[in-house]
């Protein structure tokens, strides 16, 4: 029988999980000494590939990150690189493996002093890796300060020292790396800011840990990649018709009419069979003139929510989005809340964005109590803070002394019962059941007014086509990032829906045929 290699999804491992993977590898017969040797060799290879020979300083810390540093230094020395090595700690405190490579180093061991930087063009940062427990102090901190001041080129081993690999937080000041080499799998801190911004180019090296150790871990965090959800992607069926592709309802506000129009166009482009924009009568003419493929339903102003009820009587209206341009001023706030609660009461798939979230900032529990069906919330940081003010004070956050985006999104999903898409450069998609995905493909060009409105449209369009909320949110966020990359500089929100077809075609070519 042909041997098919098991494909593992793009897991992200916390420091703790990485430690377990390491132990499982040792149990499976890979000596810890070999892992350290392979780690150091991988870093040396990456260094030689990126930089020409130059005066290099390897800064070794007191743990196994320092152990890797001894290996790198010896490899570079054996290639006749001008290498110096400074060690922070005592040999008695080293692990067996690190002590072995300390002895194997054939050059001098110099004390940690910032003077060493005078002759240095490249620093290999092997001070602290996954085991960093508190901010850097003393000589290590002085060294980092001097590296920052001198703007010295850095290659970091595992993480730039001071970055928490599990959360991406910076424990004190960190010297940014141009290259970071990590082992086996990425860690959340490589994708979450500020960590991501401090890592520079990231290389993940295979150090001989068998992938099968992943089977022994219960992992709940992934990098957003199509492999995670492509098999659920709702491609149109040859024998299908538009009602097989769902009917999305977009609630439109009275004043900011552009927002919900962007949402509606996003929903159409991502393949919803039909999209109806429910428009207050005052703004109806604006919507009706501006939209073509999207249908426009008229809501009487005095009895708005009743008209919305009537619209929802049609069971084919299977996904609803409220928020973009919904309105928060005076009466509009009350109406927005009513519309949200009506939408949630249907039990149909619902996306809540922008004003639909802020409208509940006085009493978020009313909103959370109403969420009983499939629901995706898409707050940016400001909306998140309004809706989940207590999460930053929660014991889980305080325990780690960190305002960690992954934990915050997870807690919010658990508390609200919705899939939470906590947006930004490192958007986190968290499910109430504990699963979480970190997105990594979004360009900064997406930081423009209306781009979130389009994202809400992508999500509701996928929900209308029957995708589950966590998958729909993850797929939409990834598509949004790809479209952003496709357009690049000069991107405006209006462009996003119209560039989606190109991205979908490329995605289909790469992922669909293999899943038929
Ligand atoms: N797992 C794997 O598969 C593989 C892992 N590998 C490598 O191991 C690295 C993880 O090693 P690690 O666990 O020894 O952690 P690391 O960061 O080197 O040192 C922790 C030490 O520092 C100390 N300490 C902490 N904070 C401090 C502070 N602020 N200031 C001063 N001291 C502080 C702390 O002491 P303590 O807090 O106990 O007092 C402890 O002694 C990993 O990043 C990778 O490079 C590879 O070899 C390949 C296989
Ligand atoms: N620096 C950045 N890099 C990548 N994506 C970003 C960045 N800043 C914002 N985004 C993305 O742009 C979108 C902005 O959404 P949002 O803040 O709701 O804006 P709007 O309400 O104007 O549509 C989100 O999808 C967010 O993740
Ligand atoms: K490091």
Description:
A ten-stranded mixed β-sheet has the order 7-16-15-14-13-12-11-8-9-10, with helices on both faces. It has a six-stranded parallel β-sheet with strand order 2-1-3-4-5-6, covered by helices on one side. Helix content is 41%, strand content 15%. The longest helix has 19 residues, at 32-50. The protein is elongated, with a radius of gyration of 26 Å. The chain has 516 residues and is α/β, with parallel strands linked by helices. The mean pLDDT is 94. It is built from 19 helices and 16 strands. It folds into two domains: 15-219, YjeF N-terminal domain (Rossmann fold); 238-513, 3-Layer(aba) Sandwich (UDP-N-acetylmuramoyl-L-alanine:D-glutamate ligase), CATH 3.40.1190. The site of potassium ion (K) has 11 residues, from strand 3 and strand 4.
In short:
In the N-terminal section; belongs to the NnrE/AIBP family. Belongs to the NnrE/AIBP family. With about 525 residues, the chain is α/β, with parallel strands linked by helices.
């Amino acid at each position: 029988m042909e041997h098919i290699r098991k494909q593992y999804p793009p897991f992200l491992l916390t420091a703790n999980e990485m430690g377990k993977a390491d132990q499982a590898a040792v149990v499976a017969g890979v000596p810890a000494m070999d892992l350290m040797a392979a780690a150091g060799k991988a870093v040396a290879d990456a260094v030689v590939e990126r930089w020409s020979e130059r005066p290099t300083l390897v800064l070794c810390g007191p743990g196994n990150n320092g152990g890797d540093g001894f290996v790198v230094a010896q490899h570079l020395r054996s290639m006749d690189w001008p290498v110096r090595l400074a060690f922070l700690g005592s040999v008695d405190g080293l692990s067996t493996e690190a002590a072995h490579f300390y002895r194997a180093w054939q050059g001098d061991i110099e004390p940690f002093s910032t003077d060493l930087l005078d002759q240095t063009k490249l620093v290999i940062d092997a001070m602290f890796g996954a085991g960093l427990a508190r901010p850097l102090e003393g000589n290590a901190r002085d060294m980092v300060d001097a590296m920052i001041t001198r703007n010295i080129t850095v290659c970091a081993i595992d993480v730039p020292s001071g970055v928490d690999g599990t959360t991406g937080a910076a424990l004190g000041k960190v010297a940014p790396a141009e290259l970071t080499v990590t082992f086996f799998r990425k860690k959340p801190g490589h994708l979450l800011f500020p960590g991501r911004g401090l890592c520079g180019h990231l290389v993940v090296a295979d150090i001989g840990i068998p992938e099968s150790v992943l089977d022994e871990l219960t992992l709940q965090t992934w990098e957003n990649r199509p492999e995670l959800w492509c098999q659920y992607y709702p491609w149109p069926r040859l024998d299908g018709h538009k009602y097989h592709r769902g009917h999305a309802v977009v609630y439109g506000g009275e004043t900011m009419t552009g927002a919900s129009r962007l949402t509606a166009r996003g929903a159409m482009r991502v393949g919803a069979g039909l999209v109806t924009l429910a428009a207050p009568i005052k703004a109806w003419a604006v919507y009706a003139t501006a939209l073509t493929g999207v249908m426009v339903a008229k809501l009487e102003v005095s009895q708005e929510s009743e008209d919305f009820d009537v619209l929802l009587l049609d069971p084919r209206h299977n996904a609803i989005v409220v928020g973009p341009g919904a309105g928060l001023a005076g009466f509009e706030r009350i109406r927005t809340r009513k519309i949200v609660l009506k939408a949630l009461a249907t039990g149909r798939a619902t996306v809540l964005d922008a004003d639909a979230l802020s409208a509940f900032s006085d009493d978020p529990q009313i909103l959370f109590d109403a969420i009983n069906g499939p629901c995706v919330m898409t707050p940016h940081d400001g909306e998140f803070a309004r809706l989940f003010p207590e999460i930053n004070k929660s014991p889980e956050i305080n325990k780690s002394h960190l305002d960690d985006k992954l934990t915050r999104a997870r807690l919010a999903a658990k508390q609200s019962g919705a899939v939470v898409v906590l947006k930004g450069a490192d958007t986190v998609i968290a499910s109430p059941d504990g699963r979480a995905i970190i997105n990594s493909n979004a360009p900064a060009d997406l930081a423009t007014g209306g781009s979130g409105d389009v994202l809400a449209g992508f999500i509701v369009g996928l929900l209308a086509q029957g995708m589950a909320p966590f998958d729909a949110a993850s797929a939409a966020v990834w598509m949004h990032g790809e479209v952003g990359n496709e357009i690049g500089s000069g991107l405006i929100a209006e462009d996003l829906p119209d560039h989606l077809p190109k991205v979908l075609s490329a995605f289909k070519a790469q992922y669909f045929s293999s899943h038929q």
